[in-house]
Amino acid sequence: xxxxxxxxxxxxxxxxxxxxxxxxxxxxxxxxxxxxxxxxxxxxxxxxxxxxxxxxxxxxxxxxxxxxxxxxxxxxxxxxxxxxxxxxxxxxxxxxxxxxxxxxxxxxxxxxxxxxxxxxxxxxxxxxxxxxxxxxxxxxxxxxxxxxxxxxxxxxxxxxxxxxxxxxxxxxxxxxxxxxxxxxxxxxxxxxxxxxxxxxxxxxxxxxxxxxxxxxxxxxxxxxxxxxxxxxxxxxxxxx
Length: 240
Hints:
Radius of gyration: 19 Å
Helix content: 10-25%
Number of helices: 6
Strand order of the largest sheet: 2-5-4-3-7
Shape: globular
């Protein structure tokens, strides 16, 4: 099944008042996390550091890396993008504004296709979840494309359950996309204790076991219709 993204969908979307796209200014001095894509937003601004075009599409269209059949063939150049709206808007409007910016500056056109693929569903294990208290509600969240590693543990900062599931999908040993089916709302700082160190041990516990023991969640094999993004056209961004 194919669903075409019509240009008319963007015709009524507001645009950012100002927007700057530059090659990423990643620090030449290595530090933990320096090479990560980072996205921060507030009611009237969007700041994207060290992002590839695929990172931008993921955030703008709320899709994940495994929904890109062309991922390896797309340009992996990293950019810093700073954009401001004329006034406060909901995050869904910021996403639409980014879609418009990608169309204007990268000449991006794409369409969606629905395919059924093997996945893991992230569900609540028997006994209930063992998550930390959710973060206090506010209007600003920062999103990173990978968990951090700290003292042999994976640290998922400021993550919703869908974001946590997406990051799990990228960990070594998780061989399918992970789709959130917990129904748990809110943003959490989750420390997955010893999980990074366990991956280096031939006889260490599996991530599947640790997820259930530590977080009260489990991964269940399933098949799911998946919205797949197909890029029809994209160019290097036009100058500011």
